[in-house]
Amino acid sequence: MSTQRRDTIAGGFSETASDYDGAVRYNLEGAQRLVLSIPPGRYDDVLDVGCGSGWATQAVIDRFAPARVTGVDPSEGMLEQFEAKLGGIEGVQVSLVQAGVEDMPVQPASFDLVVCSMAYHWFQHRWDAAAAMARAMRPGGVIAILCSGKGGEQAYRDVIADVEPINYQWLGAFDGNLRDIPEMEGYLVQAGLDPVDIWMERRVRHVPVEEYMERMRVVAGHIIGDPSQPEVAEWLAKVEAKMRERSGPRGWSYDFNKLYAIARKP
Ligand SMILES: C[S@@+](CC[C@H](N)C(=O)[O-])C[C@H]1O[C@@H](n2cnc3c(N)ncnc32)[C@H](O)[C@@H]1O
After folding, report:
1. Model pLDDT for residues 155-174, shown as the tens digit of each residue
2. May I ask the CATH architecture of the domain 9-152+178-205+256-264?
3. Which residues line ligand 1 (CB under 6 A)?
4. Which residues of the chain have pLDDT under 50?
5. Across the strands, what pairs with 142?
6. Which of 114, 137, 145, 169 could form a disulfide linkage to 141, CB 3.0–4.6 angstroms apart?
């Protein structure tokens, strides 16, 4: 059982870790597409930063059969999910480290591949994060990042801007989290990496309102708060009602942008 506080990012993810794989299946498919985009090669030592329940690591194992994988994540609950899924996997030595990207205790220049799937947008120090990941890479090594991209989720932002009391933290989180291609290029170049390919994937999804609400509960519990508290439950009920009003025949429709980046260490 996690002892982390719900109001930290890692604590929020710990709180909902056992529901993560069920609620956020798009992250599995994204991790697979990210890993398919890595240049062919031999990657024996792999670092998965913000490894969560291990989807990116699973995709790397399936494609590249590395010898050793290190997963780093500050969330105890997510690491427990990772351990349960991949801890006993044969043919790969798996190490898990409970730490944030900014202060992860990994050896410099010791990884052939760094993957970071759907975690970068939660890092509060993006420049430092890119520098820390670059330090961990061997010369010639590759980094593959996938995160939420600018321009997505506008329909939901419009709903929460319209529900009182206004949740300024939640509204601001979108501006704090979402980035575009030039910003990602800046992080990588500043960290001394050579960008190879950076692209945005834009899609429109149609889902039942309750499926969307569940995804938000699982990935943003630290911002939304504890739904067992009456004032949080009341606020969520108002959000849900407004989303239903604005849903169409295919349910709740929303844009989601995924930002991908591949870079190499010279
Ligand atoms: C949406 S999950 C993604 C998990 C997994 N990589 C995937 O593809 O499904 C985001 C993860 O980032 C982690 N995280 C948040 N802040 C972090 C930080 N500063 N350093 C490293 N990981 C962090 C969270 O604990 C969570 O497990």
Report:
1. 999 999 999 999 999 999 99
2. 3-Layer(aba) Sandwich (3.40)
3. 9-10, 13, 27, 31, 49-52, 55-56, 73-75, 78, 100-101, 117-119, 122-123, 219
4. 1-2
5. 113, 264
6. 137
